[in-house]
Automatic annotation (TrEMBL):
The keyword Transmembrane helix applies. Coiled coil: none annotated. It comes from Leuconostoc inhae. Keywords: Membrane, Transmembrane, Transmembrane helix. The chain crosses the membrane at residues 12-32, 84-100, 107-129, 153-176, 188-221, 233-252, 292-312, 319-337, 349-372, 379-398, 527-546. This is Membrane protein 6-pyruvoyl-tetrahydropterin synthase-related domain-containing protein.
Amino acid sequence: MFQLIKIKQKYNYIFEFLILICMSFISTYFAFSGHFFNISHDGVYHLGRFLNVADSFRNLNFPEVVNLTHVSINSYPGVAINSFYPWLTGIIFIIPNLLFSNPMWALFLSFFILNIFTIISINSLLSYLTSNRLAVFTGIVIYQFNNYHFIDLYSRVAIGETIAYAFFPIVFLGIIKINRSDKFGFLLLGLSMGLLVNTHILTFLYAVFIVILFIIYLVLFDRKYLLDKLIQIIKSSIVAIFLGMYTIYNLVHMITNNHIEEPSKYIIALSPSGVFMSTINNEIGEQGAQNWSMGLPVTLVVIFLGTYCLVTKSNYWKVYGSFSILFYFSLFTWIPYDLIKDSLLANVQFLGRLLIFVLISLSIGVSYLITFRKKNIKVSLIFGLNVVIIIFSLSALYNYHYNYFGPGTGGHSKINSENYYGMINNTDTFEDYLPKNIEKDNSNTKQNDNKKILKIVNSSPKEITYSAYSAKDVDYQIPFITYRGLNYVISSNGQKVYMSGNGKFIKVRLHRGQNKIIIKVRHNNSVYLLVVSMISFIILVIYMVFIKFKLMHEQSLIHSLT
């Protein structure tokens, strides 16, 4: 009898794995139909920074803390993108770039893998909460196939945020396991926090806020085993610190030593009329953050679940359903957010970003509802709902993919294997993470100024080589940015000069005639922390897999004895 159960479970796992692969494939395919990808400026920026890291690994080097290659044409070589914007989980996009000579195949595989991780993540959370597979499947569909997710994933191409979106459910899984006194819950919470800090700082701060709320809840309402749960949270913090040591060090080191141009602070709430029109028109264009929508079917599910909460008795799903609708409507412009435009909330910029909380809560709430009301719910109805959600989101993606170009799109264009590298290297994107008040010598860019000509003749992730001609001996400012706390080596016509960064451009002495200048960043100790973070992650994953198989083996023994 036990052998039959094992065989059945095996085939169930295989079937679910195939479903997962199919869902990930259809989530990805339409974004690449026609042999091109509809790319935003955000997307070009992210692909450039990942390509910089990939080039380092291709040359068997560790990535530098600053970027010398694939930098936006309105920024400068030496900008510290690798220090300020975490890249470690971007390995999802970096490894395929190393494996494929065709960058579009690499990009397709990267998004395919990212979608797999997103589905596995939400599946892990929901499977822990309910054994009802239809409930779990429905929750996965809501979290994966909603228009907001596709806005982030394919319209904004905000790759950092979408990777964080994939890992975010694990934060809740870790917290729930700790709350249920699972002795290994701290590993999941620590893993998720470590992944987020290595992915997207804003989403990481969301997670920190959730953990703080959880601690307050424990102290005020659930003091049973309080000490044990607090110890678990502390242990998870230690795990996260080891995983994020490289990223945390680089951020703290650069911020404390430099005055950096801060991102703009503002609050754009959702517009009722704008969201209504984008919902009805099934649009996922990124421009107009006040119009971001979850899609018609998912929005109707939010409204239905929230309304249903009013007429039913208290249950697990009611908490999540109530939160989903209340939080969703709190993101709209009828609340005077201008009164707090200078608060911490202004760092979020677009309140549409907070739809991630609505969607994860809705996924849990719907899963619970199907589980506890399974006798009153028709399977065909739920299956039909899932099909409708998938069709609507894929239809929105298809229309966006072929039509969202030109004026009013923020510079969206087609990227393919022929123009891939040219677009990354020659697109005007962002000037993020530059030191404040850079002294710019605009005359340097004028070729007729004292007959000086400057051009890049060679660049790699480790060093950049300039050729400069001057009609006379003169001091010259090279548009290569430096940072306090970093050391540089400048070779000018064979003579090496060591200098500390000062938050300004590099100045050299040009001699009459042709000059050759080579600039590179000296060895940085953070590379050792990168090794620590990588080894910590490998050890943690191996240990968690070992625990998983050990528990499965113990369960098998129990079944065999009964």
